Amino acid sequence: MQTRCVELAFAAPNRFRQSPSASHHAMKTGSSHLSSLGSTFVGSAIHAGQSPQSMNCRPKRLGGARAAIEEENAGRYSREEIERQHKLLAEKIASGSYSVKRRPPGGLLRLRRVLARAGPPGRGAAKLLADIERGWRLLVSANMPEARGDIREIVGQPVFVPLYRLFLVYGGVFRLSFGPKSFVIISDPLVAKQVLFKNAKNYSKGILSEILEFVMGTGLIPADGEVWKVRRRAVVPALHKKYVAAMVSLFARCADRLGDKLEAAHKKGESVEMESLFSRMALDVIGKAVFNYEFDSLSHDTGIVEAVYVTLKEAEYRSVALFPYWKVAVFNWIVPRQRRVAAALKLINATLNDLIAQCKRMVDEEETEFHEEYVNAEDPSILRFLLAAGDEVSSKQLRDDLMTMLIAGHETSAAVLTWTTYLLSQHPAEAAKLRAEVDSVLGDRVPTIEDMRRLRYTTRVINEAMRLYPQPPVLIRRAMAPDELGGFKIKAGQDIFISTWNLHRSPAIWDRPEDFVPERWPLDGPDPTETTENYSYIPFGGGPRKCLGDQFALFESVVTLAMLTRRFTFALAPGAPKVGMTTGATIHTTDGLHMIATPRQHGTVASEQTLLHEENGKADNGHAGNGVFKEVAEESIPMAAKR
Ligand code: HEM
């Protein structure tokens, strides 16, 4: 098939595609989702992995936001530069020059030897020195392992990659220092549990709050202390069971619209860039779900869609800038990007304020009594629930909460779907097994809430994709008082990164940690969570600050994956750029996920179902035998990339 890239008539969200730029990354800045940001060091890594090569399928139209994004991305890191940095870091770790010396100064040993030869008084002094040395060693062994590096060895690549290499050498709790600044990196499940759950009260969101303040204000993700407690208590009930069930049909509707787009592309012989399409679909979902707003970004590129992306991009940008010039008011007038950001925020705020006012009027006119599982059929949004609940909250706080959820629930979901689709394109056997389940459970029905229990393998595929590509890959905290982590003391004010990436890929925890094995999660077992896995698996965090949209997000991913699987097979587009990783708050691809989506011929379904049953019958928890599926996979996934 002759393929071209779908030319999307949109501006802003295309950021993900081609540019050598961080356009790509335009943000997910989520919050927590922004968690992988939060310091110059972390932020610098955000722009990692971008290739300066131009892509062969650029969108023809560049809107203002996209142009702005491209403008600032020129001349970032080349692939060669990143590879050079990987090598340098590996060599430095191997040579030991990255490690802080933990032995007493070598001169002491020589002095002791000289003293020992100088008769009884010298021997006495040498013994005294030996005792001091022993005390030193004891003291040092109580110190946290420390890697002291040069920030240039870390930037230019997704930050969780060097953190993984360092973890393998320095262990589950170590300090990473750059000059006077240090971060404690946690990759040990029990220590993660202590920070997230057992002693959660001692940890704030630290630098994350500062970065996100301009967009989320005191919304749930950046908020700490009393504000967080009050707002969490108010918002959580809005995502009750009936609400999530009502959302299933919204997910299906949006996934169907995406399916139509893919079908149209196929008819024209075009490839599709799935990362930006998933981003648009997730924006459409979250707009409706949170404040009943129809972005319809899959079809139109309206000013508000562009404004959302400009704002998200800015949050990412601020996390990487060395000098926070926007804190100086005059620069906000002088610097064009700051003027654009101000205009975007003004538009979003005005839209949200209108929606809030409109919703208030509707609630005032509504006759239905408010109750615990209140859902308005025409407007099942979270905003409607909060207003109907009579939530005593200022419009500003409400706006902050809505904006936070918009960001938190947007790119995370998009990223999960992007990497799941990528993984499946690399694992035809698992893709065939998935199709078999979807066909047998759904046929050509649209999924309902009851199907969520039945789509077991689909759920496992998502669980496993979230293990390999956690969104965000790092969680950020700051200690408010001294604590002891894994036996090492830390001081108040210590910045901490919990590396979900390291936990999820730790060779000490997982068999074949790097492999995509949905079967590692038994179909008849409970859905894996931080509780079932005792903090070895924390795709939604854990403890009091755990994601409140976890069930929503899981169902959104399952429904979308099932709907698309029912209609298409996916394969990487011939000649598509290698799918590399880069990170904002979530993990993005470096150059987009260019695929061929082929509408399915339902003739292969029966044989795939037989295979699913045969495979399930084995009740084997290992990796599915690829050989079993090979034939089906080959005939039903045209051009599928093979492992
Ligand atoms: C696959 C999609 C999603 C993933 C992987 C995800 C992941 C996470 C994670 C890991 C955290 C904890 C952050 C931390 O501890 O620092 C979090 C927090 C949060 N998430 Fe999500 N999330 C997703 C979707 C959503 C959705 C759809 C919503 C809203 C409807 C949402 C709203 C929130 C909020 C408000 C918080 C902050 C909770 C608090 O601090 O009290 N998320 N999310």
TrEMBL record:
Gene Ontology biological-process annotations: xanthophyll biosynthetic process
InterPro entries named in the record: Cyt_P450 (IPR001128), Cyt_P450_CS (IPR017972), Cyt_P450_E_grp-I (IPR002401), Cyt_P450_sf (IPR036396), Cytochrome_P450_Monoox (IPR050196)
Ligand binding (heme): C547
Pfam families cross-referenced by the UniProt entry: p450
Keywords: Heme, Iron, Metal-binding, Monooxygenase, Oxidoreductase
GO molecular function: beta-carotene 3-hydroxylase activity; heme binding; iron ion binding; oxidoreductase activity, acting on paired donors, with incorporation or reduction of molecular oxygen
PANTHER family membership: CYTOCHROME P450 FAMILY 4, PROTEIN LUTEIN DEFICIENT 5, CHLOROPLASTIC
Family statement drawn from the similarity comment of this UniProt entry: Belongs to the cytochrome P450 family.
Protein name, per record: Cytochrome P450
Organism the protein comes from: Klebsormidium nitens (Green alga)
